[in-house]
Automatic annotation (TrEMBL):
Gene Ontology molecular-function annotations: ATP binding; ATP hydrolysis activity
Family membership noted in the UniProt record: Belongs to the ABC transporter superfamily.
Residue stretches making up the ABC transporter domain: 2-229
Keyword ATP-binding tagged: yes
Organism: Dinoroseobacter shibae (strain DSM 16493 / NCIMB 14021 / DFL 12)
SUPFAM superfamilies for this protein: P-loop containing nucleoside triphosphate hydrolases (SSF52540)
InterPro entries named in the record: AAA+_ATPase, ABC_transporter-like_ATP-bd, ABC_transporter-like_CS, ABC_transporter_ATP-bind, P-loop_NTPase
Keywords, alphabetical: ATP-binding, Nucleotide-binding, Transport
Name of this protein: ABC transporter related
Length: 242
């Protein structure tokens, strides 16, 4: 696995002629987890889509660059908020979809292992319509991990999971994405406090950074510093909404 580069996002965005977010300067640590929080509709997913180079409804005035100077295209795996699973394909086929679309032979053993690690072995043959919301989300997570890219963009990837599975999947993602540059959009202050090497809150006026504790990620859920940060983040989010 190539080490993920640092990424810099600098610019402002307008949607339908009106400002969505003001001039911002966001640096994603190379080979680290950056968490992005903020009120619904403030533009978090839009930032992910802009980095991913996907079609967007906004006009972005600025630049998105990797610190190593190389193009980002082909180096990103993106997990959208909606799981985007193909309804006609089984879990295994969905996990292998990227390789198939590129005309490559998928690594079947790796797919089996990832499906096992997300707890879906018993469901590997099923189509998405036969899965629960949390199972679908884990299938989408396995598909993202299967891509083996140095830059990973995750849009609320654990939001549909029960508390126990969520903490397990957070730990799995940290383990399997070691060395990757990860941008995680989340509404969960506890998740950001556990996973962020860097944590930002997006507001219409711009970004603010909240310094996490120095403990390595994933931080213990019941660590006093993690809990204190969780509380501080929730307070900041509530103040922002006031
Ligand atoms: N396809 C689209 N066409 C027009 N406007 C859109 C489109 N997608 C999103 N928007 C608008 O752009 C703004 C930013 O949306 P975005 O999805 O980036 O927000 P978000 O911060 O990720 O929200 P959430 O936390 O609810 O997912 C919102 O006001 C939304 O209504």
């Amino acid at each position: 696995m190539t080490r993920g580069p640092a990424i810099r996002v600098e610019g402002s965005a307008r949607s339908e002629g009106a400002p969505l977010f003001a001039q911002l300067s966001l640096t994603l640590e190379g080979a680290g987890w950056t968490c992005l929080l903020g009120a619904s509709g403030v533009g978090k997913s839009t930032i992910l889509r802009l980095i991913a180079g996907l079609e967007s409804h906004v006009t972005f005035d600025g630049a998105i660059t990797a610190a190593d100077g190389a193009d980002l295209s082909g180096r990103i795996a993106y997990m959208a908020q909606s799981d985007l699973l193909m309804p006609w394909a089984s879990v295994t086929e969905n996990v292998c979809l990227g390789a198939r679309l590129r005309g490559q032979t998928p690594d079947a053993a790796r797919a089996r292992d990832l499906i096992d690690r997300v707890g879906l072995t018993a469901h590997a043959h099923k189509r998405p319509g036969a899965l629960s919301g949390g199972q679908r989300q884990r299938a989408a997570l396995a598909r993202t991990l299967m891509e083996d890219r140095p830059v990973i963009l995750l849009d609320e990837p654990f939001s549909a999971l029960d508390a126990r599975t969520r903490s397990e999947m957070q730990e799995l993602a940290v383990e399997l994405l070691r060395g990757c540059t990860v941008l995680l959009v989340t509404h969960d202050p506890a998740e950001a406090a556990r996973l962020g090497h860097a944590i930002f809150i997006l507001e219409p006026s711009g970004l603010s950074e909240v310094t996490p504790p120095p403990a390595p990620v994933p931080r213990a859920i019941d660590d006093p510093d993690t809990l204190a940060l969780q509380g501080a983040l929730l307070r900041r989010l509530r103040e922002g909404a006031a």
